[in-house]
Amino acid sequence: MKVLVIGAGNMGLTYAEGMSKSKLLKKKNIMVLDSSEEKLKELNEMAHFDAFKKLEECVPQADIIFIAVKPYHANALFETIKPLVHSDQILISIMAGVTIDAIKTHTGLNKIVRAMPNLPAKVGKGLTSYTSSKEVSRIELLTVESLLDTTGKSIRVRDENFIDASTGISGSGPAYVFYFMQSMMEAALQMGFSKEVSSVLVSETFTGAVELFNQNNLSPNSWMDRVASKGGTTQAALDSMDDNNVSELIKEAAFAAFERAVELGKEENYA
Ligand SMILES: NC(=O)C1=CN([C@@H]2O[C@H](COP(=O)(O)OP(=O)(O)OC[C@H]3O[C@@H](n4cnc5c(N)ncnc54)[C@H](O)[C@@H]3O)[C@@H](O)[C@H]2O)C=CC1
Ligand SMILES: O=C(O)[C@@H]1CCC=N1
Fold it and tell me: Pyrroline-5-carboxylate reductase catalytic N-terminal domain: from which residue to which, for each copy (predicted)?
């Protein structure tokens, strides 16, 4: 089996690296194509991939085509691969908002998997939600799932609405965590800590809290209760967040990402 990754940026290269460790793929069965000369140079230095510049040299031989370009590059790319594809191929897209119907129309392919990963895939801690067109068989889906799992965990969702929803939670979510971290680091700096110490204070706090959450069966609310003493320091911080409606604002932000994913897909707004 051969996999072709088109777009070797943050996500494409991460998946190519992940899939190169898959037992389903033998060495050198991952082809990677990027339109940027700089990227190609980088790819040519990586021994475990075959790097390509021309679609006609790699698209026809691929069993699975993995698309990881930005949504606004999708349609131009689809039109160029259309004459090169054959109906047995499976196309996996991780592009935000690009719908299965649009992919079918513009590529002529029917076996489509739409997936939404997230950036922690870079360190094997990704979460990828995915769904597929009915033409992808159960066995093919198992293969796809096994490839997606090379970068972390995957979750199969019922339909594309849940892909857009998971974009608002897990796809864009790492940025919300970084937003929170950035604010806490800025507060630590203002309190007089050095940059290095601020970074350690914040990152260890996040790692520790997530580890606690993962190792126990308690809700975040229950954990908050365990940190906060009545009339104490944590309660002062939580009261301040409640007074400022922070919880509602975070939910609003997640819905903004969800709605943007839906909007991108409508009438192909990403084009
Ligand atoms: N970065 C993230 O956290 C996440 C990104 N995504 C999705 O992944 C996709 C890729 O995002 P990133 O990796 O962050 O982007 P990126 O900008 O890092 O990588 C895109 C790559 O595609 C290449 N490219 C552009 N047009 C091309 C073409 N026609 N043929 C071949 N290569 C081409 C570019 O040279 C670049 O190397 C996007 O559609 C995004 O919606 C999904 C979930 C998370
Ligand atoms: O911001 C974006 O559009 C992409 C999709 C999820 C994360 N990054």
Answer: 2-97
